[in-house]
RNA sequence: GCUGCGGUAGCUCAAGGUUAGAGCACUGGAUUGUCGAUCCAGCAGGUGUCGGUUCAAGCCCGAUCCGCAGCGCCA
C-alpha cells in the first residue's frame, strides 16, 4: 500500500508511479496549482496537483498543515528553475493523480518548527515527537539498544526478565510502592534495579545475564534523572574485575563505532576515586576539560591568613587552586557570580588573584587577599598553579571534601564558560571507591555503592575492624563527565556478607527479614560474580548531544514527576482505595 | 525541604503610569512554479491563581500552582 517513503525517492525513480503516506507539511495554492509538501520521518517531497485534475481534488483543497495524507502519482523531474539542490528530493516532484485525506488535522497548538517551551511540548508529546530532532533522538536510541543487544547476544548472554512487582529495599532510594489487594496492608515495591535478582541468577547457573531493565526511584528529578529510567543490566559469574571491565569497555567501544562511527580509545584510561577527587574534584571528571585542581597547602601553612593557614595545617583540610586561563578579563561581577555559584556547593568564599604581570611579583597581581600573603607563598602559588599573565587563580579552602566538590563544580563551570572543552569523546574508568561513607546525622556507615559490593580485602574481620580504610571492587564508567555505567564484583561468601551488614548496622534479624533468601542462596555454592549497569537514557543523551535525558525518552516526566500528557499521577476513586485497603492522609497544607 | 529563572493572545515574544503590542498560527481575498513564499484584510488576550500596597499594578509585596536549572536527596 505504501510503496515508498518520501526521503527514499530520487531522480532514478523518474517515471515511476508511487504511493506515499505522510503529513502535509505545508500547502500552497498558486492560481489553481496546488502544492503539498509531504513529510514522513525519512524526509519530504513536493507534490504538485495538476490544475487539469482539479476537479478530482476538490476535497483535497482543504489540505493544510499536519493533515495525514495518502498520495499516489508519478515521479517527474522538476522544471529547471525549481530545482532545489539542498533537498535530497529537490530534483523531482510527485505529480499527484490521487490525494486521499486519511485524517484531517485541527490547527496545531504550537508550530512544529518553532522553539516551543517544554511544557507545551510535553503536553502534546504526540506532536512534539513528529519533529525531526525528536524523530532522530528516538531512532538513535533504538539503534543504541539494538546494538547493545546484538553485542551481548553474540557473546552468549541470556536476556532474562526479572519482576517489576518486588520487595521493598532498605537503604538506597525511596521505593515506589504498589498496594496488594490480595494481601491487605502489604506492598510491593517497584525495582530500583534488578540487583538482587541478577545475583541470584548467577547462583542459578545463568552465568551470563543481561536485561534492558526499567528501574524506579522515588527521588527528585534532574536533567539526567527521571523517576523511571532504563538501564542495561549485566552480570557474569566466574569473573574478576578485569573481565567485567573488558567486556563493558569493548561493548561501549563497539556500540559507539556502530551507532555513531566514533572510535573510542583502547583501553579506556583508569583512575582511582582518590585521584579523581584530588585532581578534578569529582568522581566523574570530564576529561575534555584541561583544568586541574592544584594543592597549595604547603605554601600557605605559615601565612597569617587563617582562612588559608587553618585548612593548610589541618589533615582533613584542603587548599586548592584552579587556574582560569584568560580569567583576568573577568569583571568583578562575573567573579562574584562564581562565588555565588560555588556557595551552592557549600563554599564559604572564593578567593582569587588576577595575574597581570607574573614577573613583577606581588606588584603584578590584583587581588583582595594578596596583602595577606608573603613572597614565598605567592611564588609557590604561581608556580604550582602554572598561571600565566592574563590568568586568574581561584582559591578553595576548607574541609577537604567540600573544597574538592565546589572546586570541581567550578572547574566544570569554567570549562563551559571559557569554552575549554576539547571536541572529543573522553571515557574513563573510576576505580577503588571507598566501601563506606560515614553519616554524621545518623551516626552510622552507609555503603557507598550497595551492600553487596565486595571489598578488595577477602577478610571479613579486616573490613569489620576498619571500615574507613576499606576499598571496594566497584567501578564507574564515565564519559565526558557523565556517569554512564557502574558496577562491582559482588560478595559471594556468606561470612563477608554478614560482616557487611554488621558494619552497616543491619541486625542479623533484619538482614534475615530483608535478604534472607539471598543469604541462604549464598550458602549453596555461590560462584564469584560481578556485573555492571549502564544508563541507557544517559548514553542516548550523550550520543544525541542533548543536556536532558527527557529528549531521548518518548514520554518523560516533569520536574515534579508528572506526565503532562496523561496527567499522571491523579487521584483515584474511594472504591479503588477501599479495595486496596488504603487510606489517604490529607495534610494540613492541602 | 531549599535557591535561582520563567509564566502576557493557540505558539514565540514585547510593553515607558492613559485604551497591553508584534511575528507566526487561524479566517477571507490576491498570485500559473515556490521550498515551511509574498501582498491585502480580518479574528484574537486583560497578563498562572488568590490576596495585598497604591490615585494607578504584567510590572511592587505576600502566599500558592505550574515549567526549567541546581542544592539537599539519588544504596
Give the helix/strand layout.
Elements: E1 17-30, E2 33-40, E3 43-49, E4 68-77, E5 92-103, H1 118-123, H2 125-128, H3 132-154, E6 158-159, E7 177-179, E8 187-189, H4 195-202, E9 208-216, E10 228-237, H5 241-260, E11 270-272, H6 273-280, E12 294-295, H7 297-300, H8 306-313, E13 317-324, H9 332-343, E14 351-355, E15 365-366, H10 375-385, E16 392-399, H11 400-417, E17 427-431, E18 436-439, E19 444-447, H12 460-465, E20 474-479, E21 482-489, H13 494-504, H14 508-522, E22 529-535, H15 536-544, H16 574-579
Helix pairs in contact: 3-5, 3-15, 9-11, 13-14
This protein binds one RNA strand of 75 nucleotides through strand 1, strand 2, strand 3 and helix 1.
State the gist of this model:
This protein is of the alpha+beta class and 590 residues long. It contains 16 helices and 22 strands. The protein has an 8-stranded mixed β-sheet, sandwiched between helices.
What would your notes on this structure say?
With 590 residues, the chain is α+β, with helices and mostly antiparallel strands. 29% of the residues lie in helices and 24% in strands. It has helices at residues 118-123, 125-128, 132-154, 195-202, 241-260, 273-280, 297-300, 306-313, 332-343, 375-385, 400-417, 460-465, 494-504, 508-522, 536-544, 574-579, and strands spanning 17-30, 33-40, 43-49, 68-77, 92-103, 158-159, 177-179, 187-189, 208-216, 228-237, 270-272, 294-295, 317-324, 351-355, 365-366, 392-399, 427-431, 436-439, 444-447, 474-479, 482-489, 529-535. A hairpin with a 2-residue loop joins strand 20 and strand 21. The model has no long low-confidence stretch (mean pLDDT 92). It binds one RNA strand of 75 nucleotides through strand 1, strand 2, strand 3 and helix 1.
Amino acid at each position: 500500500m505504501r510503496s515508498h517513503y518520501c526521503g527514499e525517492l530520487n531522480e532514478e525513480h523518474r517515471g515511476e508511479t508511487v504511493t506515499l503516506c505522510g503529513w502535509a507539511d505545508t500547502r500552497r495554492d498558486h492560481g489553481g496549482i496546488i502544492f503539498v509538501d509531504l513529510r514522513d520521518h525519512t524526509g519530504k517531497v513536493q507534490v504538485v496537483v495538476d490544475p487539469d485534475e482539479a476537479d478530482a481534488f476538490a476535497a483535497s483543497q482543504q489540505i493544510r498543515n499536519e493533515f495525514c495524507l495518502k498520495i499516489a502519482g508519478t515521479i517527474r523531474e522538476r522544471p529547471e528553475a525549481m530545482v532545489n539542490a539542498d533537498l535530497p528530493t529537490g530534483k523531482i516532484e510527485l505529480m499527484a493523480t490521487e490525494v486521499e485525506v486519511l485524517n484531517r488535522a485541527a490547527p496545531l497548538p504550537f508550530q512544529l518548527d518553532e522553539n516551543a517551551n517544554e511544557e507545551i511540548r510535553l503536553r502534546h508529546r504526540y506532536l512534539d515527537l513528529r519533529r525531526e530532532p525528536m524523530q532522530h533522538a528516538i531512532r538513535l536510541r533504538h539503534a543504541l539498544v539494538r546494538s547493545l543487544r546484538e553485542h551481548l547476544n553474540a557473546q552468549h548472554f541470556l536476556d532474562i526478565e526479572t519482576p517489576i512487582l518486588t520487595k521493598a529495599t532498605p537503604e538506597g532510594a525511596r521505593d515506589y510502592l504498589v498496594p496488594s489487594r490480595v494481601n491487605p496492608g502489604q506492598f510491593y515495591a517497584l525495582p530500583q534495579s534488578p540487583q538482587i535478582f541478577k545475583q541470584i541468577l548467577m547462583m542459578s547457573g545463568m552465568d551470563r545475564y543481561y536485561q534492558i531493565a526499567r528501574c524506579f526511584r522515588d527521588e527528585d528529578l534532574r536533567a539526567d534523572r527521571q523517576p523511571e529510567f532504563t538501564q542495561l543490566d549485566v552480570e557474569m559469574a566466574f569473573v574478576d574485575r578485569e573481565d567485567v571491565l573488558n567486556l563493558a569497555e569493548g561493548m561501549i567501544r563497539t556500540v559507539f563505532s556502530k551507532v555513531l562511527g566514533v572510535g573510542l580509545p583502547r583501553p579506556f584510561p583508569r583512575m582511582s576515586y582518590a585521584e579523581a577527587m584530588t585532581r578534578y574534584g569529582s568522581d566523574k571528571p570530564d576529561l575534555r576539560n584541561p583544568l586541574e585542581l592544584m594543592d597549595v597547602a604547603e605554601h600557605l601553612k605559615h601565612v597569617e591568613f587563617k582562612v588559608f593557614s587553618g585548612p593548610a595545617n589541618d589533615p582533613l583540610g584542603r587548599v586548592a587552586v584552579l587556574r582560569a586561563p584568560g580569567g583576568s578579563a573577568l569583571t568583578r561581577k562575573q567573579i562574584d557570580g562564581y562565588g555565588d555559584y560555588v556557595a551552592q556547593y557549600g563554599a564559604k568564599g572564593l578567593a582569587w588573584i588576577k595575574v597581570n604581570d607574573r614577573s613583577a611579583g606581588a606588584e603584578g597581581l590584583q587581588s583582595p587577599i594578596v596583602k595577606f600573603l608573603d613572597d614565598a607563598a605567592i611564588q609557590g602559588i604561581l608556580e604550582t598553579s602554572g598561571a600565566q599573565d592574563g590568568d586568574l587563580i581561584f582559591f578553595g579552602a576548607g574541609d577537604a571534601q567540600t573544597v574538592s566538590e565546589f572546586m570541581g563544580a567550578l572547574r566544570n563551570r569554567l570549562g563551559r564558560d571559557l569554552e575549554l572543552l576539547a571536541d572529543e569523546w573522553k571515557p574513563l574508568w573510576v576505580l577503588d571507591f571507598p566501601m563506606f561513607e560515614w553519616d554524621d546525622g545518623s551516626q552510622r556507615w552507609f555503603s557507598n555503592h550497595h551492600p553487596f559490593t565486595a571489598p578488595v580485602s577477602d577478610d571479613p574481620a579486616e573490613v569489620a575492624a576498619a571500615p574507613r580504610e576499606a576499598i571496594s571492587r566497584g567501578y564507574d564508567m564515565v564519559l565526558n563527565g557523565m556517569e554512564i555505567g557502574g558496577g562491582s564484583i559482588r560478595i559471594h561468601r556468606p561470612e563477608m556478607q554478614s560482616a557487611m551488614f554488621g558494619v552497616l548496622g543491619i541486625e542479623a534479624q533484619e538482614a534475615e527479614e530483608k535478604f534472607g533468601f539471598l543469604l541462604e542462596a549464598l550458602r549453596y555454592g555461590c560462584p564469584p560474580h560481578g556485573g555492571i549497569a549502564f544508563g541507557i537514557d544517559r548514553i542516548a543523551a550523550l550520543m544525541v548531544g542533548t543536556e536532558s535525558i527527557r529528549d531521548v525518552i518518548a514520554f518523560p516526566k516533569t520536574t515534579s514527576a508528572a506526565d503532562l500528557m496523561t496527567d499522571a499521577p491523579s487521584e483515584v476513586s474511594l472504591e479503588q482505595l477501599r479495595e486496596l485497603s488504603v487510606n489517604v492522609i490529607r495534610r494540613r497544607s492541602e
